[in-house]
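Data card: per-record layout.
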Amino acid sequence: MALQTILVGVALVLALGYTWLNGFRDASTAVAAAVRTRALTPGIAVAVAAVFAFLGTLASSSFGFFLVSRLDVSLGSGVPGLLVLVCGLVTAIGWGLFCWWRGMPTSSTQGLLSGLAGATGAAAILGSRSMSNPLDILTGGVLLPLLVTPIVAYSLSYLMVYPVTWLIRHDTARDVNARSRAGQALGACAVALGLGLQDGQRSGAMLTLILLTAQYVDSPAATPWAIQLTAATFLSLGVLFGGWRIAHTLQHRLVKFDPMRGMVAQGVAAGLLYVGALLLHLPISTNQSVSSAIVGAGANQPFETVSWRNVLRVAGHWIATPIACVAGGVILTLAAYPLTLI
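The structure for this 342-residue chain is written out next.
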């Protein structure tokens, strides 16, 4: 019982750390385009993103309950289940820090779900009650979004440049830039709200899952509303610290874009986040949505501006995420298995 109490505390601390890191990494993603074109100053952009990420986390719980329902029935309870959660969280945090240090806009969602899939698979091999099919969450929560999100975001952003360009064909360059910067300011708010709907709900779901696994609550519906408030607070605090390494990649290393194309990219990215959270209940990555949309809009210009070498480097880290995190979840779970025998 003492071990379980310790593991609950460790898991909660890790979940809150993961939430803070999520905001820290994705804050710059939400506002990168607006800061790049001087639609917003960095300080104002981060403050606005923190507010809207907080509101987005409180706005809906549909994705959180979706994640809980997919994992709760398969983790088991007590020490074995808590160890799986701890190993998955450690893996996601480690990979997130590594990619942040390299300035790579990777998906925190996919790192977490891949780490949990690897951990549950290893636990199943060792004989613990675990997910009957770890490939299910890996396929539906990681591989499908990894394949679909970049393609859809790039294609929609590329195509949306045409009607927007047609609509502004008679305006002066000064008017176009002024209106586009205003649109980008709204777009930054929209993406930050989507960050809360997606990443904030996922963080609340992890806190709920820990309590369910420890049998502190009986069902997701019985989870205190304070869980979502806590997740919203830590996500917003992470946003306020705003790690700009990833922003530098999005602003300067992938593609050159003007305010109009930045506005288009932010609108497309925000739309994908809303559809994923509110309609499809699927984990859509903020980083992947924004990055792909920026490249798509920037590619639709009369002259080549895309640094495809850097784009491929980012895509390589996206592909490496499930591989590295599944492996990390497996290794950590195997190493921690003796604790289940105490």
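Known properties of this structure: The chain has a mean pLDDT of 83. The chain is about 80% helix and 0% strand.

See the next section for split statistics.
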